Amino acid sequence: ECVEWEVTDGGGSEIMKWNGWGYSDSKFLFNKKGQAEFTGKRYRLSGMIIPGLKDWMEGTFGANLQHKTPATPLLTSSAVQPATLNKAFLEELKSTGIPFSHDAEDRVFRAHGHCLHEIFALREGKFGRVPDMVVWPNCHNDVVKIVELACKHNVCVIPYGGGTSVSSALECPPEETRSIVSLDTSQMNRILWIDEKNLTAHVEAGIVGQDLERLLNESGYCTGHEPDSMEFSSLGGWVATRASGMKKNIYGNIEDLVIHIRMVTPRGVIEKSCQGPRMSTGPDIHHFIMGSEGTLGVVTEVTMKIRPMPEYQKYGSVVFPNFEQGVACLREVAKQRCAPASIRLMDNEQFKFGHALKPQVSSIFTSFLDGLKTFYITKFKGFDPNRLCVATLLFEGDREKVLQHEKQVYDIAAKFGGLAAGEDNGQRGYMLTFVIAYLRDLGMDYYVIGESFETSVPWDRVLDICRNVKARIIQECKDKGVQFPPLSTCRVTQTYDTGACVYFYFAFNYRGLSDPVHVYEQVEHAAREEILANGGSLSHHHGVGKLRKEWMRDTVSNVGVGMLKSVKDYVDPDNIFGNRNLL
Amino acid sequence: MATEAIYPHRDPMLKKRDDFEDMLEERRNSSDLRYALRCYTPVLYKGLAPCKASMLKSMVLQSDQLHHVIGQVSRETGRAADDVQEEASAILEEMAHCLQLSTVRFFAFTLSKVFKTLFRSICVNEEGIQRQAIQEHPVVLLPSHRSYMDFLLMSYILYTYDIALPVIAAGMDFMGMKFVGEMLRMSGAFFIRRSFGGDKLYWSVFSEYVKTMLKNGFAPVEFFLEGTRSRTSKSLTPKLGLLNIVMDPYLKGEVYDINVVPVSISYERILEEALYAREMLGVPKPKESTSGLFKARKVLSEDYGSIHVYFGQPVSVRSLAQGRVNRCQFNLVPRHIPRRPSEEIQSFVNDSAYRLVRAQEENMVLKPWVLLASLLLQNHHQDQTAGQKRGMVLEELTAQAVWLRDMFREYGAFLHWPDHVPPSEVVSSSLSLHRGLVRVCEGRVQLAVEQGGQVKPGEPHSTVTPEEELLSQAVIVLSCASYRNQGLHVFLRPALLASAINAASSNLKQEVFNSFSFLRNMFSNEFILCPGATVQDFEEACYLLVKTGALQVTQQELLVTERGQRTVAFLTSMLDPFLQGYQVVCRFLCEEATENLTEKQFVPAVRKFIIKHLLAGRLRYTEVLSSDLQKNSLAALLRLGAVQKIKAAEQGTLKVNKVMVNSLEDTLGGRLPTQKAVGARL
């Protein structure tokens, strides 16, 4: 819809930024006139002027266009630690003909995900422990060979898919003394077969979300799995982290979509013998694999459910007088089990933020209409512009049912004081999902750092957790000496029968702080503690990685950790998959 | 012993306190009527309009918690849910406040008149009031409780400063006063039964009512941590029920934080002064009745000096709980299902309660009279021992008061001694304010006890029996003691240490500590001693005595200095009445307690025993007659297991472990070293 698809090649580094989010040609900047614009041609917002962004940044963060913090423009290879190579491994690898590299740029590119501290360090040109080499297997058998060699020569392997991790999962453990091989799955990106009778597709795990969707679309199908990172994240990564997609209400999360998984481990290949839709064969071994975060092996091939492409899609949006009403509406929608493909509720701050990202309107008429709408909502309906909030909706299916469904949802919304606010607002909301990650890079050019994190929480706790975590962030920033009030905002992004997924965003202007990343990490840590104290989960779909593993024991109990450990000990006794995530 | 542990000594002298301003000054200079009718526009929590009483009731009745409990009660008793619901509604009706501005205005007017006649000034720290008015989080007000006046006074102050009016938890006994009860209700009081032990439904309605008001920030919630008025002016050990309730919304994440504000109200003269003394001597507490209040008012048409009200630093419940409570414990059971608080939470609430009571104590303003009462009492006891009735030379009293003033200041007391006035004037004006309690005669001052010394048996003495005589003396002594008690918290820890040094068989630090720890444990029902803070208290006591040059602490020993003798003597004799009192109670239990002594009979029986000893001259401290002391010592013995409560058919009887009680008595009397007496228990 809003993205011009393009297959990303494995090397990646030319068309992708090495020290920021996404494509090199797409970024926010302030032009000579001091107006914000978004460059490139890939997105709907590309090439447009965003007049409100400057004021919003100045107003929200106290940022100033005069105070810049530009990133180090080029990667200096000499700053990268020299590679520790395992000669014997290298020799044998060469004989297999699998491509590899120990070029500094290739290694640095695969040494990080997109946590704030990772990007911040890259922008400063600082690199910690990075992989010593990168290998590009082309198929399942290549992976089998690589893992065999790694075991034989005691080499540490870290699987790498799309590199969109936000849990420090890709960081190389600094204490690792063995040679670290980054196993890049990007060349394993084919759809091996499509089974139209059973509606399944067998796909190599290195395929990136947008390619998978585009290729399936060509045959009239889709998986419907659309995480916000789908432009760059890979199927294998989804499986390894228990990913969730925006449209899970129709298609399900990754655990619902997966029928069969093939994973290469130091003990050999693990897979099931059939593709029955459900089995009663003891604990589901897929659940050892899903969420294993690269600690047990490499997922090479996955059979997934596919669906015929939807006939009709319609965006929508609803304005509520306040966040409480909005949450009550989402709860009711979930209770009646009539959630559209996607339903997301932004709080007031995010609503304002969305407003600031409106591109310049081309005609006086549109701006007049906008004015009229604002007038209607705030003056006529009496909504307080500092309290109102917006839900964005996406309906999918056949046309008639969509319209019917739409009416049902809007009727429920009306009971909670919600007013329909048009398709355009809804669509823009979803478009922002893709560009919001670019915005962090702009902030970092002007002393603003920030991040998002998520949780899942029972319905009765949603309002409490939103209020308390936002307040905690503000308080912690104050206590830690942040000079400007932070942006602390949230949205409810998924609904379930018994609870919801909540996303928090926070960002602040770090001028005057000597160690902003440390302050940032302390605040995020405190915010996570607050989440847990308020009945939220450690993660809904980002995973644990190394960032959150200190809370694993409290989360799954001692016995739980013991269970996971014993699986790890059996499958990978020599810790070949030594990224040290999770446990 | 961990006395080497670093204890962060804050120099009490450095304590920053706000300035006071006299509220009555403006009342004396402008119209009370205009004041009562003025525009009242307090800042509201999050800009919320206050909730109508009826709306509040329906919120409570529709709450998940109450629904759950109603269902439970209906299942357990077989009653129809509607029936139980109705009962809940009736309970709420009985309980709920219905704050009306018109009533508040009425009180504002009448109280202005009353206050101006009774008091010279009502001094408040405006900064403190404004601090708590920043309604970022729901507010709980915790005033100290010494008088019926307290809560009207609080509302009066908040009204004056244009601050949101609180809703106040009041005991049901007020409801006995038909008209007054309703008036209080309309000025924001809500009424709770004194005991509702096992009544699930009552508890549920009550806690939900308080939480609903608090969570939504409809009004600050005010209650008395001490549970009841302290008759002795000592802070009472805190009651935890309401504190548990108000902390719950934070612990369950329903609010981000709650600010708790300790408020210290100190009266230069307590209106109920003699009433309290009589009550403790066994004249039963009259049921609160409207006519009684008026009678009291008649008696009280004299000068009651000034009142000081100090709003302390708000305490954030979140910061109190930081690192103490794991809030995840509420994750696995729906939050509306009432559960007994976990041990972790109980101990957290208990510790917090002690901290808050100590915060109240610290900000109590002490008047010169507190020092004078302490000195006069000591002198009275000395006179009694010597069989004289000489009193103190006024100059000597003044000199000693100045000495004591300086000591109090060094201990960090919040003492209001007018420095620009010569000490002799300070003393004489103090004495004249309390002329009911002291007599100045030929330059000598003594307590206004009708007859000093003992009445010789057989001597005709009108119709007054020696016992009546004794009791009327005791009224004066207990009244005086209550003023001394106002300052107890200041020197309690040094006094415990001084007594410990006296009792210990050597100067060895460890031995003194053992002795200190024993006394502290013994008296923890009597005074505010935070549980588990023995080492801190010991360190604090050492610190203060060293600082004032009374003590030298070496690696191994504690040595009282030459100039410290006087301090130590003073401190020891401050605590002596309590030490003696506890011993007498022990003796009673050993000598006279029968198999079927009930709890109810305990106080009258021990009183009889004490009167006997006093009259026989075997006991010098009349104040031991205080039922408060007797009850506290029994509570301590029960806690230590020296006495056990045996549940009998009608009432609980007391089973005394005479060996243990006897050895406790001997240890208190210094006849037995501490370790042997109670062993591992301490």
TrEMBL record, chain A:
Pathway: Glycerolipid metabolism; ether lipid biosynthesis; Lipid metabolism. One of its GO terms (biological process) is ether lipid biosynthetic process. It is an enzyme of class 2 (transferase). Substrate binds at R440. It catalyses: hexadecan-1-ol + 1-hexadecanoylglycerone 3-phosphate = 1-O-hexadecylglycerone 3-phosphate + hexadecanoate + H(+); 1-hexadecanoylglycerone 3-phosphate + a long-chain fatty acid = a 1-acylglycerone 3-phosphate + hexadecanoate; a long chain fatty alcohol + a 1-acylglycerone 3-phosphate = a 1-O-alkylglycerone 3-phosphate + a long-chain fatty acid + H(+). GO terms for cellular component: peroxisomal membrane. Gene3D superfamilies: 3.30.160.650, 3.30.300.330, 3.30.465.10, 3.30.70.3450, Uridine Diphospho-n-acetylenolpyruvylglucosamine Reductase, domain 2 (3.30.43.10), Vanillyl-alcohol Oxidase, Chain A, domain 4 (1.10.45.10). Its cofactor is FAD. Keywords: Acetylation, FAD, Flavoprotein, Lipid biosynthesis, Lipid metabolism, Membrane, Peroxisome, Phosphoprotein, Transferase, Transit peptide. FAD binds at residues 159-165, 241-244, 293-299. GO terms for molecular function: alkylglycerone-phosphate synthase activity; FAD binding. The active site is at Y503 (proton donor/acceptor). Residues 127-309 form the FAD-binding PCMH-type domain. It is found in: Peroxisome membrane. The keyword Phosphoprotein applies. The record marks R344 as: Important for enzyme activity. Its EC number is 2.5.1.26. Belongs to the FAD-binding oxidoreductase/transferase type 4 family. Homodimer. Catalyzes the exchange of the acyl chain in acyl-dihydroxyacetonephosphate (acyl-DHAP) for a long chain fatty alcohol, yielding the first ether linked intermediate, i.e. alkyl-dihydroxyacetonephosphate (alkyl-DHAP), in the pathway of ether lipid biosynthesis. Catalyzes the exchange of an acyl for a long-chain alkyl group and the formation of the ether bond in the biosynthesis of ether phospholipids. This is Alkylglycerone-phosphate synthase. It comes from Sparus aurata (Gilthead sea bream).
